[in-house]
């Protein structure tokens, strides 16, 4: 008699899900640009007034940069958060398939 073989297990289709997709701003980029603009603003504001001869221009710029960079980073973060909140209004629903992938064995790894 012939042997009975089990049919190959049919792949179960992964369930389709709806996910929200949106373009979100990168907050660190806003903070870095804000810090750079804060430094430039400090440099311009410090150069508008004569520097004290006992202290020097570079020392004044370095001291006031502590405030300028901090304020610039804070303002950049606020702008980034506001743009992030606005981007939530522009979300789209798209269909997505869930896939599971088995990792490839690493050479020298026990199976």
Keywords summarizing the entry:
mainly alpha, 2 helices, 47% helix, single chain
What does this structure look like?
The chain has helices at residues 27-47, 57-87; strands at 16-21, 92-97. A two-stranded antiparallel sheet has the order 1-2. Helix content is 47%, strand content 11%. With 111 residues, the chain is mostly helical. It is elongated. The model has no long low-confidence stretch (mean pLDDT 84). The longest helix has 31 residues, at 57-87. The protein has a domain at 29-85.
* Succession of helices and strands: EHHE
Q: Total number of β-strand segments? A: 2
Gross morphology:
elongated
Task: List low-confidence stretches.
Answer: none
What is the count of DSSP helices, taking H or I runs of 4+ residues? 2
Describe the biggest sheet?
2 strands, antiparallel
Strand content: 5-15%
For the largest beta sheet, what order do the strands appear in spatially?
1-2
Distance between the termini: 38 Å
Radius of gyration: 29 Å
Which structural class do the helices and strands define?
A: mainly alpha
The percent of residues in helical segments reads 40-55%
The pLDDT mean sits at: 84
How would you summarize the topology of this molecule?
Elements: E1 16-21, H1 27-47, H2 57-87, E2 92-97
Antiparallel strand pairs: 1-2
């Amino acid at each position: 008699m012939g042997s009975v073989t089990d049919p190959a297990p049919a792949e179960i289709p992964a369930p389709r899900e709806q996910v929200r997709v949106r373009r979100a701003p990168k907050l660190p980029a806003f903070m870095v640009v804000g810090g750079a603009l804060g430094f430039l603003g400090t440099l311009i504001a410090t150069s508008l007034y004569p520097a004290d001869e006992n202290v020097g221009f570079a020392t004044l710029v370095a001291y006031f940069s502590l405030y300028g960079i901090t304020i610039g980073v804070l303002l950049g973060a606020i702008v980034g958060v506001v743009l992030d909140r606005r981007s939530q209004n522009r979300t789209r629903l798209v269909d997505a398939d869930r896939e599971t992938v088995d990792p490839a064995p690493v050479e020298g790894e026990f199976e």
